[in-house]
Each structure stands twice: as C-alpha cells, then as structure tokens.
Amino acid sequence: MNKKLFAVFLCVAVAGGGLLWKNRQTVTNPSWAQPTMGTMAHITLSGSISKKMLGTLRDAIDATLEDVNRTMSTWQADTEISQFNRFQGLENVEISPEFAEVAQAALEFSKATDGAFDPTVKPLIDYWGFGPEERTTPLEEIRQAVGWQKVHLGSATIRKDRPSLQLDFSAIAKGYGVDRVAGVIAQIRNNFLVEIGGEIVASGTNPKGLPWKVGIENPDPTAAFGESILQILELSGRAMATSGDYRNFQIRADSTRYSHIIDPKSGTPAESDIAAVSVLAKRCMDADAVATALFVMGSEKSFQWLETHPGFDAFFILHDPKTPGFASRATPGFPKE
User: Fold this and answer.
1) Which residues take part in binding Mg(2+) (predicted)?
2) pTM for the whole thing?
C-alpha cells in the first residue's frame, strides 16, 4: 500500500471509529418508566442525548420525584404532609416552599370552585376506604373537620382551625409532580413528554418531528390502561389531566359502584353524570385540580364554570341515561384530531 493510499485509509478508519464511538455514547429518543406516587411515570425524550447527560438527567428526575413523595404522600408516615396531619395543635407550622406552593394552589382552586375541590377531605377519603387509615368515627363528626376555609396559609407557615383537620393533595400532587419533572427536563431540551398516572405534559415535537399525540381512554373499568382509546388529540405546549369514576372505586353490598372522588360538601362519593373529564391547562397541577372539581360539579355546572375560566378546556365523557354507553361533549377550544 503506498503512503498516500495508506494516509487516506487511516483518515477513513479514524473517522469511522469516531462515529462508532459517538454512536456508543449517545441514545436516540430514550423512553423509560419508573414507579412513583403509587403509579408509574413514563418519560420520553425526542432526539439524541449523550449517555452521560441522560444518566445525569435521570438522577435529577429521580431526586425530584423522591422530593415530591417526601412532601406530598399521605401513605408514608414521615412525609411533610403526614407530619402536619398528625399535629394536633392550632399553632403555625413551618413548611417547605414546595409544600407552600401546592397548598396555595389547592386553596385557590377551592375558592375558585366554591369548594368542589377541597384539600381537607383526607378523613373522608379514609372513611370511604380509599386512604391509608381506617375510620370508624361517625361521618357527621368527620365532616366537622373538613373545609378549606379552616386552613390558613402564610408565606412559609400553615395552621389549622381544628386539631383533627387533615390535608390530602392526591388530586393535585401527580400534576405537580409532572410539572416538576417537566421543569427539570426543560433545562436541557425542548422536546419531551412526561406522564404520571394519566396526567401529562408535552413539549415540542415527538421523535418524528410532529406534535405529540395522546389518547383519552374509553371509561371502561374492564379494559387495561391504554387498551381502549376514545379520542386522540395533539398535545404540545400544554398539560392534560383526567378524573373519572372507572379506575379507582369500591363496590357496595348491593353491587353498585362508588368513586374515590369525594364531594366535600356532602361528605360522600360524588354522584356525577360524568364518567371522565380531561382538562387542558398551562400547568398540569392546575388541570389536575380542575378535573377533580368538574367531576364533582357535574357537567351542567362544569360548562358554566368553564365559560368564566378561559384558561381551561375540557373533554367530557358522560353517562348516557338512555343507553348503557357514553356520550361525549367538549368545550369549543378543546382540540380534535
């Protein structure tokens, strides 16, 4: 081999080796799932990312989700919310900025929805069999400690009017967790999708360079998660959260079903004409809270509420009184495929 030909071969070999090395050190469109908050988180990134950066990012996401659990979970005894719930005093309690952020949003939505959303329903959730504790106290007695007006939030403190008042952020915490994870990813890239227990944030484009597409389930309790899709929509730059009566429920002695979503005013599981409602908003925790409130309100009051709150759009799947199936209805701004 002459020197000129050898030099060309060497350059090609080095370049080829460099490309192979680069391919070994990068991942394209990584997607993974991990348990969190009593459900699963699903995360997809669009495009290529170095393995080192991906490892750093996943560590940051793990730490973020652990922090959300450590703050918000009522199923763990050592979390910030569990410690507050055990506290029997009426004095101010110091809280973390994260706790304060979620508590403020929860109380704002309680006021905005006239109590259809209420973070003080934990004793009722326990009473109806959906929480970590068993309650034998009479329902009317439990209801005396329920009411968002009995919570007082300062800049870094919180206090309760009644010793037995307890908070539950489960109707807003998953959305908050999605927002937190999305915030971590957004520091390094624009194209991603984050989903936790059906609550979603989508940003930029999918691996094909198109807007992300997500599905709304048919509210069939016998179908596996994602098995039966009723509606598909493009979702980029917004968040979506869904509340419904078809996944988490209990069966009465007479074989009728009741939902985990509690009507704070009656103290009983919400009796709604809504089978499921999906809400779009800028923040996922806002969509999460509003979806719960709309389910409690029922469809007629929900549409009245949405007319005066233009930052939200919603897609309703309604129990059809005339047939065993469902009917659907959406606000004008809810996108369709």
Assistant:
1) 171, 288, 292
2) 0.88
